[in-house]
Structure formats: structure tokens, C-alpha cells
Amino acid sequence: MSRHTSVACMPLLLLALAIPASAHEHHNELSEEQAAAPIDTILWLHIFVQTAVWGVLFPTGMVLGLSRSRWHVPLQSVGFALTAAGYVLGHSHKGRAFLAGIHGTMANVMFIPIALQLTLGIYLKLHIHERSLRPWAVRLHGVVGKAYPILGWTQMLFGAITVRGYCRGDNLGQCLAHYIMGSGFIAYGTIMAILLLVGEAWIRRSGRSPEWWDSWVIMLWGIVNTFTEHRGAVWSVKDMQHTILGVLWWTGGALGVFLSRNNQRSVVPSLIIILTGWAMSEHAQALMLSTKVHAMFGHTLMLAGLTRIVEVSFIAPKYAPLEVSDGDSHSDHTLTDTGREEMSTGFGAAGRAFRHLPSFLLVAAGLLFMSATDEELDFVHDLDMDHVTYVLIMFSVAFLLYTLIVTLINLYATSGRNAIAAAADNGIEMAPASKWYARVPVADVDAEPAHVIGDDE
Ligand code: HEM
Ligand code: HEM
């Protein structure tokens, strides 16, 4: 035990040593000059490296871990090396200076999941305690691993906030509202895409319709918002609007839970999304620009709700519960035609294309909402940019983000131990020398979950 533990702790020590004590000093106040200085190359490199690692590399590696690809460990090892370098860069920049803030604090907090994942990962590679501790380590490593994209998203957002000096003082409340709700819509769209592309087997095993889950989340969120959106003695118009939205969500959510019981599809969550979008589109703002961006956000949300109604009512079927639990290694969750035809729409390709609309529009709406705080829009206004350009920038970002999301989902369905099922479903024999996919012998596919990473040669 002790030998293994010390082996596992080595990289941690190295990482700790890699963060130089000679970090730049922190500021409680900034001079005009410090605050306006250009961002130097080191900081640009920091931003580039960390965005690449936490935005693309780690999520890709996570997917390869889930599919037990042999590329998981090499990719995540590179990720750790690069993020360590990124930490050093973040600490050693000159140029523009910043007030001490949440980005630096969060970076320190992130040492915990980094250390944990590294230690657990190495422990897993040692293949010891195979029948006692290891299965629990796999589970914990899986939970922490799935938190990585969320941690990365949050820290990237904090980074952007730091660059612009947003969210200080009175602006904090608005920041929280926009960034949490916006990220919530993006997460909603992402989960919808996952369920749509690889999660049907999971939904069927759960025996609940997707709207049953939606409605619960909306209801609980509504209860929170009912009690948290009003501060001070006076009820401002905004307080009233935000509070009634909370009430709308839990009342509607309750109806949704009831109507989607017994695995029935329901249009109630979509209705709530449409009403929320309408409320947002009518939200009067100080700047014309802001009013227009809010309007576009609201309309996008309304369209997301509308397309979801069409999808629920006319395209996607009731998800018949699965009789048996057959593990995750079956071909149900591949993207191939045969895998889906049996459980999906009678509309074939057209239906499948249509079903991306609600999830994409939710992602786009979330991004628009996140880009609509007063501080951001004041900045855009000062640049003499109008809402047309700004909204289209956000839609471009939405296209990029949704591309990343569906690429990762597709990677899950076609890599590691899913590769063989995907190849079989496609009716193609994959090139035997394919170097991108770790393939598990067919016989293993239905066996106990194989803990095979790195050992499949
Ligand atoms: C997501 C992974 C990231 C991690 C783990 C990370 C970590 C760090 C660390 C450790 C520092 C030094 C903090 C300090 O001096 O107290 C730092 C500084 C900084 N980072 Fe990041 N960062 C990440 C992403 C980003 C991104 C995406 C941006 C910009 C969009 C960014 C912008 C900055 C800025 C402006 C500083 C300077 C703050 C200062 O001097 O106080 N970071 N980062
Ligand atoms: C160098 C560091 C790492 C090593 C050596 C490592 C090793 C492993 C191994 C051996 C497995 C297979 C477990 C089994 O079934 O036997 C695995 C699974 C997994 N890894 Fe890692 N890993 C590392 C870093 C990471 C990171 C950074 C993440 C997060 C982004 C991650 C996310 C996952 C996930 C999600 C699984 C699937 C777990 C499950 O199915 O519940 N790993 N890893």
C-alpha cells in the first residue's frame, strides 16, 4: 500500500513544485495605467492553453475514459502537463494587472479535483485491489471526471470576467442571474442532445419520460427563484417579474410532473420555456441595444419551446421501458440507423434532423442570455457595434459550441468499446489497423464491464 501510495503521490509533488512561489503580487487597488495596460503574451498564452485543455482536451479525454478507449490515459496525461504549464503562465504574466478575484481562488480550489483525478487515475493503472477497492475508485474517478467539463466551463467564465473586470460591487447580482441561468439553458440543451443521440437506452431503462425529469428540475428551480429574487423593501418591476417567473416554474413544473407520470410525453415544459422566452423578450432595458438582444434571446427561447412541442407531439415516440438492463455496452446508443430506427421516429432522417432544433436553440439562447448583462452591453455599445452583429457573433459561438457537443457525443458512440458495436451496426468491418479506436474483442462486449484501459493489447 505505502509503496503504491508514494508512487501515486509523486506527480502531485511535482505539480506543486511546478507552481512557482514567485507569483506576481496581488492588488487591492489598480492605477489607471495598470488596468489599461495591454494583456501580455504570457497571459494570452495562458488563456489559449487553458481554454484548449479545459474546453477541448479534458472533455475529449473524459469521453474516451467513458468509452474505455486506450487513448484516455495518454490524452489526460498531456492535459495535466499542459494545465500545469498554464498555471505557471497564469502566475507569471506581466502587463495588465487585475484585482484579486474569484478566478485565482477557483484556480486553487481546482487543485483538489486535479490531485484527486491524477491519484485515482494512477491507482487505476496499477490494477491492484481489483476485487475490493478498485471498483469504488473507478466510480469516484468517473464522478470527478464528469465534473471536469463543468469545472472548466466555470473557470473559463471566471477568467473572462477577470479580463474585463466585470461583476464587482452592484453588478454581482446581475452577473449571477445571467451566468447561472444562461449556463443552465446550455446544460439543458446539452443533456437534451445527449439523451437524443446516445441516451435513449438510459431513458427507457429509467422508465420515465424525459419531460418527467424536466418538470422536476423546473419545479425545484422555481421554488428557489420564488424566494430569492426580491431584495430590499420595495418591489421593483424586475423583482416582480423574476419572482413570478419562479412561481410560473413551480406551478407549471407541478403540472408537468403530473402529466408526464407513467412514462407519458408532455408539452408542459415546452410551454414553460415559451412563456419564459416571452417574458424575456418583453423585458424593457436601459439601452436600445440591450432591449434588442433580450428580445432575440426571448424569441430564441420561444422557438426552442415550439420546436420541442413539435418534437414531443409528432416526431419522437413514447420511450417504451426496456425489459432488461443490458449495461451500456449495447448498440442502442450508437448513432447508426439500425440502432435507432427501431426505437425512434417513424419520420426517419427528417425527424432525426429536426430533433436537433430544440437542443441547439437552447444552447444558443443560453449563450445570448449570458452575453446580455449591462456591463457587457455597455462595452458593446461603446464599441459602436449594433445588436445585429452582436447577436450573430453569439450564434456563431453557439454553432461552435454545439459542434463540440455533438462531436463529443459522436466520439463516445464510436470509440473504445463502442467502436466495435458501431462498426457492426454500420455493416462495415473497420480497418483492422485503425489506430484511432481501441477495440475490444467482440466476446467482451456483452461481458462484465471490462476495465481495460491501456491493457487491451
Ligand atoms: C480553465 C482553466 C484555467 C485555469 C485553471 C486558470 C488558472 C489561473 C491561475 C492559477 C492564475 C493565477 C491567479 C493568481 O495570480 O492568483 C490565472 C490568472 C489569470 N487567468 Fe486563468 N485559468 C484558466 C483559464 C483562463 C481563461 C479561459 C482566461 C481568460 C479568458 C483566463 C484569464 C486569466 C487572467 C486575466 C489572469 C490574471 C489574473 C491576475 O493577474 O490576477 N484564465 N489563471
Ligand atoms: C493521467 C491521468 C489519468 C489516468 C491514469 C486515468 C486512468 C483511467 C483508467 C485506467 C480508467 C478505466 C477505469 C476502469 O474501468 O478500469 C479511467 C476511466 C475514466 N476516466 Fe480517467 N484517468 C486519468 C485522468 C482522467 C481525467 C483528467 C478525467 C476527467 C476529465 C478522467 C475521466 C475518466 C472517466 C469519466 C472514466 C470512466 C469512469 C466510469 O466509467 O465511471 N480521467 N481513467
From TrEMBL:
InterPro entries registered for this protein in UniProt:
DUF2427, YTP1_C
Chain segments annotated as transmembrane: 47-66, 73-90, 102-126, 147-166, 178-199, 353-370, 390-413
Recite the UniProt keywords alphabetically. Answer: Membrane, Signal, Transmembrane, Transmembrane helix
Q: Does the keyword Transmembrane helix apply?
A: yes
- Span of the signal peptide: 1-23
Q: DUF2427 domain: which residues?
A: 28-127
Q: Residues in domain Protein YTP1-like C-terminal?
A: 152-412
Q: What Pfam families does its record include?
A: DUF2427, Ytp1
Give the protein's recorded name. Answer: Protein YTP1-like C-terminal domain-containing protein
